[in-house]
Specification:
The complex is a heterodimer of chains A (351) and B (286). By secondary structure, chain A is α/β, with parallel strands linked by helices. Helices cover 58% and strands 13% of the residues of chain A. Chain A has an 8-stranded mixed sheet with strand order 3-4-2-5-1-6-7-8, with helices on both faces. In chain A, helix 1 (17-30) packs across helix 17 and helix 7 packs antiparallel against helix 12. The radius of gyration of chain A is 25 Å and the shape is elongated. Chain B has 286 residues and is an alpha/beta fold. Chain B has a single domain (6-282), classed as Rossmann fold (3-Layer(aba) Sandwich), CATH 3.40.50. Chain B has an 8-stranded mixed sheet, sandwiched between helices. Classes of the chains: A alpha/beta (351), B alpha/beta (286). The interface between A and B is large, with 63 and 64 residues.
Chain lengths: 351, 286
C-alpha cells in the first residue's frame, strides 16, 4: 500500500492558516498528487476559500479540480463516533444520553482535537490519497492538536478516574463504593443533590473506553510524529508567541516543524525607500500626506522585518514569507496568485 | 462605560483584546479610578501590555491606580468555597476543596463558575472602582457566561444554586457589568462579530457595553487621481495599498454598524506603548 504524506498546518487563529492550507492543497493537487485538505474549524472558512459550501465529515471532490478533495469535520459528531467505536453498545448508548456527556464533549478541547486526530488517521489509513493536509484547530496554536492523544489517555485513564473508580476497570458495583466516600458525601450535601453519583456513573462508563482508545491514540500519535508540520504566523506578538510556544514544547510533542511561514508581510522596499522628486500637479498638502503615509508604512515594514530577523536568529527552522494582499483570496485563482506572490512558500510547504 | 464595575473584554484571537483591556485600565486609572486588571486564561498578553513580564494570583501594582493579577484556579476555588459559598465553620474545607479540585477538570460548569466567580466577586469589593477582565475569545467566554445557568440546572437547590443565580443577575445588569467586544475591520472578524452579536441577542448572558473596531487606518486624504500621477515606486505602492485597504475597512465597518474605532498604530515596538496609545481613545467613549 502506498504511503500517505501528512501535512499539519498549525498556528494561532486569524493568521491565515486556512488560506495557507487551501493554497498548499491547490498546489499539491496541481502537481498531480491526489490531495485531501481537512479543516476542523467550525467556521466554514475553508469551504469559502475553496469555493465549496457545506462540507461534511465525508470528503467531497472540489468541483473543476483534478486530484483535490476537501472535508470539514464536525467534531461533536466525531466525539460520538469515538464513543461508538470504543465502548460496548449499551455503554455507548448510556454515555450519549448522559447529561454530562454533551457538556464534556463541548468543552474539553483535547477531546475535539483528538476526535479530529482520529478522523485524520482514518483518512490516512484509508490509503485513498497521496497527501492529507490538516488545517489544525487554532486552540493552543496547534499544540493542543498534537498533544491531544496524550491528553485523552490522561482524561480517561488518568488520576481523576483512578481516584474516583479505583485501579483497574471497575464493575458497576464500584459506583456505590465511590459515592459512599465521606468526602463526596460532604460535597454532595453542599452541592445540594446527587450530582456526584451522576458524575461517577458517567466516569465509570467512560473508563471502559480506555483500552480501545489508548491503542488508537498511539496510532494517531504515530501519524502526528510522521507528519510534516508548518507553522503559520504574522509578525504580531500574539500569534508569534503561540509559534514560540509550539517550538519550545517540541521535545514533548516530538513533531518537527519543517518551516515557519510569516503571512501578510509588507514589501521590504517600503522600509528603505527614499522618495521621488516633487511631481508636477501634486499640491503641498497631498505631497505631505503621501510622504507621511510612506513613512508610516515604512516604519511598520521595518518593525516587521526586525521581528522576523530576531525570530530567525533564535530558532533553527526555515522561515518563509507570504506578502500581504489587500484582500484575502476567496477563490482558487486567488490562492494561486498568493502562491505566485511568494518566492519561498512552495519550498517551505513541500521541502 | 467606565462607570461600570466589571468590564469583560473579548473577541477572536489576534484582534488585540489584551491591548484593549490594558488600555481601558489605563484610561480609567487616569480618571482616578482604582482599577483591577485580571487575566482570565492566558495572562501574558495583559502583563506585557501593562508593562510587566508576568502576573501572579495576588494583585500587584503595575501603574498608579492599576493593580493586576491572573485568575489562579486552585486559589479561586478556595476563595469560592470560603468567601462566596460561606461554607460553615467546621466543614472539612481542605478535604472538600481537594475533592472538588479533582472534579473541576471534568464537571461541566464548575471550572467556569469558579473562574467567572472571581471577577464578579472582586467587582463587588469596595477596594476597586472597576475590574477589567482580559477574557478568552467569545466562543470560550460564552461557556463561562453560561456556567451559572448550567449550574442552576444541574444543582437542584442550595447555596451553590443561589450563588449561581446572583452571578447571572450581576452579569445581566447593565449598570454593573458589560462586555467589550473587540474586532478588526476585516471580513472574517466582522462576520464572526456580527454572528456573536446575533447569538448574544438571542441568548442574553451579559450586557453589551460596546463593540470596538481595532486597527482602523487613518484617512489618507489623497484622491486616486493624484496617486496615479506618482511615478512607479514605493511611495505610489504604499499610497495605493493604503487607499485600497481603507476602502475595505470602510466597507466592513459599515457592515458592522455602531462601533468605537481604535487607531491602527504604525511601527510601535512594545506592547506597553500600544496600550498607552490606545488608552487615549477611551476619554471620549461613551
Amino acid at each position: 500500500m502506498k504511503r500517505t504524506e501528512i501535512m499539519l498546518v498549525a498556528g494561532a487563529g486569524g493568521v491565515g492558516k486556512t488560506t495557507v492550507s487551501a493554497t498548499a492543497a491547490v498546489l499539491s493537487a496541481e502537481g498531480g498528487v491526489s490531495t485531501l485538505v481537512v479543516t476542523v474549524d467550525p467556521a466554514r472558512r475553508l469551504g469559502d476559500a475553496l469555493g465549496v459550501g457545506g462540507l461534511g465529515n465525508r470528503p467531497v471532490k472540489v468541483a473543476g479540480r483534478e486530484n483535490l478533495w476537501a472535508a470539514m469535520l464536525d467534531v461533536t459528531a466525531s466525539w460520538e463516533a469515538i464513543v461508538t467505536r470504543h465502548a460496548e453498545p449499551e455503554v455507548a448508548e448510556r454515555l450519549v444520553v448522559n447529561p454530562f456527556f454533551r457538556a464534556v464533549a463541548d468543552r474539553f478541547p483535547a477531546a475535539q482535537a483528538y476526535a479530529a486526530g482520529e478522523q485524520m488517521a482514518d483518512f490516512v489509513d484509508s490509503g485513498a490519497w497521496d497527501r492529507v493536509i490538516v488545517d489544525t484547530p487554532p486552540s493552543g496554536g496547534g499544540i493542543d492538536f498534537v498533544l491531544a492523544p496524550a491528553a485523552m489517555r490522561e482524561l480517561i485513564g488518568g488520576r481523576l478516574l483512578t481516584w474516583l473508580t479505583g485501579a483497574g476497570i471497575p464493575g458497576r458495583r464500584a459506583l456505590y463504593r465511590v459515592t459512599a466516600r465521606p468526602m463526596l458525601r460532604v460535597a454532595d450535601s453542599i452541592l445540594g443533590g446527587p450530582l456526584l453519583e451522576d458524575i461517577a456513573e458517567f466516569m465509570l462508563d467512560l473508563r471502559t473506553l480506555y483500552d480501545g482508545l489508548a491503542s488508537r491514540a498511539s496510532e494517531v500519535e504515530r501519524h502526528l510524529r510522521a507528519a510534516r508540520t508548518v507553522l503559520i504566523t504574522t509578525a504580531s506578538p500574539t500569534p508569534l508567541r503561540e509559534v514560540r510556544r509550539f517550538l519550545d514544547q517540541l521535545p514533548t510533542a516530538s513533531v518537527d516543524p519543517a518551516a515557519v511561514i510569516f503571512n501578510r508581510v509588507l514589501p521590504a522596499s517600503w522600509a528603505t525607500a527614499g522618495e521621488p522628486d516633487a511631481v508636477e500637479g501634486i499640491g503641498q498638502a497631498s505631497w505631505t500626506a503621501l510622504h507621511d503615509n510612506l513613512a508610516r508604512w515604512g516604519a511598520e515594514a521595518r518593525h516587521e522585518a526586525d521581528t522576523r530577523r530576531q525570530f530567525a536568529a533564535s530558532y533553527r527552522v526555515a522561515v518563509a514569507t507570504v506578502p500581504l494582499l489587500t484582500s484575502p483570496p476567496t477563490d482558487l485563482e486567488g490562492l494561486a496568485l498568493l502562491a505566485d506572490a511568494s518566492t519561498d512558500l512552495v519550498g517551505a510547504l513541500f521541502g | 462605560m467606565l462607570d461600570r464595575r466589571l468590564l469583560l473584554v473579548s473577541g477572536k484571537g489576534g484582534v488585540g483584546k489584551s491591548a484593549v483591556a490594558a488600555s481601558i485600565a489605563i484610561a480609567a486609572a487616569r480618571l482616578g479610578r482604582r482599577v483591577l486588571a485580571l487575566g482570565m486564561v492566558d495572562s501574558l498578553g495583559l502583563a506585557l501590555h501593562l508593562g510587566v513580564d508576568s502576573l501572579g494570583a495576588d494583585p500587584r501594582a503595575v501603574a498608579p491606580g492599576i493593580q493586576a493579577a491572573v485568575i489562579d484556579r486552585a486559589r479561586a476555588l478556595d476563595e469560592y468555597l470560603k468567601l462566596q459559598l460561606r461554607v460553615p465553620r467546621g466543614t472539612p474545607t481542605r478535604q472538600l476543596s481537594k475533592a472538588l479540585n479533582v472534579l473541576v477538570d471534568t464537571v461541566p460548569g464548575v471550572r467556569e463558575i469558579i473562574s467567572m466567580g472571581k471577577p464578579i466577586y472582586e467587582a463587588q469589593q469596595s477596594r476597586w472602582d472597576l475590574v477589567v477582565v482580559d477574557a478568552p475569545p467569545l466562543g470560550q467566554l460564552l461557556s463561562y457566561l453560561r456556567a451559572p445557568a448550567t449550574i442552576e440546572r444541574l444543582v437542584p437547590s442550595g447555596i451553590v444554586q443561589n450563588q449561581a443565580a446572583s452571578m447571572r443577575r450581576f452579569l445581566l445588569d447593565a449598570r454593573r457589568s458589560g462586555l467589550v467586544l473587540v474586532t478588526l475591520p476585516e471580513e472574517l472578524p466582522i462576520l464572526e462579530t456580527v454572528d456573536s452579536l446575533d447569538e448574544l441577542a438571542t441568548e442574553p448572558l451579559v450586557d453589551l457595553a460596546l463593540v470596538a473596531a481595532n486597527r482602523v487606518l487613518p484617512r489618507l486624504g489623497v484622491s486616486d487621481g493624484v496617486i496615479t500621477r506618482l511615478p512607479d515606486g514605493p511611495m505610489r505602492h504604499a499610497a495605493e495599498f493604503h487607499s485600497t485597504l481603507e476602502d475595505h475597512q470602510r466597507y466592513w465597518l459599515d457592515a458592522l454598524g455602531d462601533a468605537t474605532r481604535l487607531p491602527h498604530l504604525f511601527g510601535l515596538v512594545t506592547p506597553a506603548e500600544v496600550a498607552a496609545q490606545l488608552s487615549g481613545a477611551w476619554g471620549e467613549a461613551r
